[in-house]
Structures are given as C-alpha cells and as structure tokens.
Specification:
Blueprint: H1 30-62, H2 69-83, H3 87-101, H4 110-135, H5 139-147, H6 152-167, H7 169-182, H8 194-205, H9 208-237
Helix pairs in contact: 1-4, 1-7, 1-8, 2-4, 3-4, 4-6, 4-7, 5-6, 7-9, 8-9
C-alpha cells in the first residue's frame, strides 16, 4: 500500500505542495484545514458540554426534590424527550424546524443551534446520572442537613450535590468523551468540523486512508485528553473511605 502523507502539505486550490505544510499569502493547505476543523470540533464539544452540565445538573436536581411532584414530572419529561429522540433528528429539528416556528432564530448561527442540540441531548443523560448519584447517598445526609437548619436549597448545595458529583465522575467522564464523538453529527448542517473535513478532503484528494487516519487520531487525542482531565478531577476530589450506601438521599 502506497501512502502519501504529503497530501496534507498541498494547497486546497492548485494541489501544489507548500513548503512547511502551512499556507502562506492566503493559501490554505489541507493541514491548515484539518487543524481548523479540529478547532471547530473542540469548540462545539466544549460549548455543548458546558450547557449539558448546567442544564443536566438543574434537571437532575429537580427530579429528586421532595414533595414537588410537578417539578419531578417536569424533569422526567425533559429526560424522556431528549433521551429518546436520536441526536441526528434533534440536530435537524433545531436547524430546520425550530427556526421555522420561531423566525427570530433564523439569524442564529448554525454553530449555536448545533451546540444547543448536542448540549440538551447530553443534558438528559447527565440529569439521569446525577439523579442516580443523589439517590445513592445515605438518607442520613439529608436529615443531617435539615437538622442543621438548612433550607432545601442549602442542603442540596452544601451536602447532597458535592457528594453526588463525586459519585458520578466516572459516568461523567464517559459522557464528556462521548460528546466529542457525537459532535461529528454537526457535519449534517455544514459546520466545518472534522467529519465534514474528512468527507470533503477525501473526495478532493482521493487519499481517504490518510485523511481518515489523521481525523481518527485527532478524535482519539481529544477523548484521551478529556479522560485524563476527568481522572485528575476524580483523584483530587475523592473522599477516602467513602462508599455510597443506603440510597434515597433526595427523599
């Protein structure tokens, strides 16, 4: 098999090899394009992850509030809605259907719509994980907070949530890695991320093996970095000897 990695040093217009592999004087090489696509992938993933963590934390907490049946039902509805619709369908709904219903959103960049779709999709999964983490806590932790005179907000803020987040760091790590992989659906609405680059560059260069290997390597690097960051957080936040037991920490 004859591989040609020099393809990344070619400019995207005349297909001439550029010395140093980076474009000059307005020229763009396939390496420039690859790194730009990687930047878009990281941007989509990190922005969606922030939304997923914020919204997922709110919804997950609402689903465990005591004596709030309608709030719990609202949280359950959110999870069932966004978890049971395929991500690609949600991308198209946000990009084509929602702007048609709300014309003001037609001016919103496609990048932001993709971030919202990916963030809300992942928020449903994080909400379920946080709910499980809260319910896994010993019931006595909630009672201890109440005995100290804490309001519901306070014992969630200072007692339940800090412990629940520690419990769910491993599944959060998986979700954080998955969000980088799921960002590939952004190609469907022409966000210039890695998958779209791979498809177009392969057609232009006929060097699909080299292109897809490079893209795969960047996805792996992204997932590995987020994995190591989450592992560091887990190590630093671990409470020696703590094992969740008893359950029903939110009730």
């Amino acid at each position: 098999m004859n591989w040609d990695w020099q393809v990344f040093c070619e400019d995207t217009i005349e297909r001439q090899v550029v010395q140093g592999c980076f474009g000059k004087n307005g020229d763009v090489t396939y390496l420039d394009w690859l790194l730009s696509a990687w930047g878009w992938t990281i941007s989509v993933s990190l922005c969606a992850l922030v939304i997923a963590l914020v919204v997922g934390s709110i919804i997950g907490t609402l689903r465990t509030l005591p004596d709030r049946p309608w709030t719990v039902r609202l949280g359950n509805a959110w999870v069932e809605l966004f978890r049971n619709i395929p991500l690609l369908v949600q991308i198209f709904l946000w990009y084509h259907v929602v702007p048609a219903i709300f014309p003001a959103l037609k001016q919103v960049p496609g990048f932001l719509l993709v971030v919202l779709a990916l963030g809300f999709f992942t928020s449903a999964r994080i909400a379920e994980q946080l709910r499980a983490g809260i319910l896994a806590l010993p019931r006595g932790q909630r009672y201890a907070g109440m005995a100290l005179g804490f309001t519901t907000f306070q014992y969630y803020r200072y007692v339940l949530l800090p412990m629940a987040y520690r419990i769910i760091i491993p599944p959060l790590t998986s979700e954080s890695m998955n969000i980088f992989k799921n960002s590939s659906v952004a190609f469907a609405v022409s966000v210039a991320e890695l998958t779209l680059f791979a498809m177009q560059a392969q057609e232009e260069t006929s060097r699909g093996i080299e292109v897809y290997l490079a893209v795969t390597a960047l996805y792996m690097i992204s997932a590995f970095v987020i994995n190591r960051i989450m592992a560091f957080i887990e190590k630093k936040s671990r409470i020696p000897g703590f094992i969740a037991a008893g359950g029903s920490g939110g009730h």
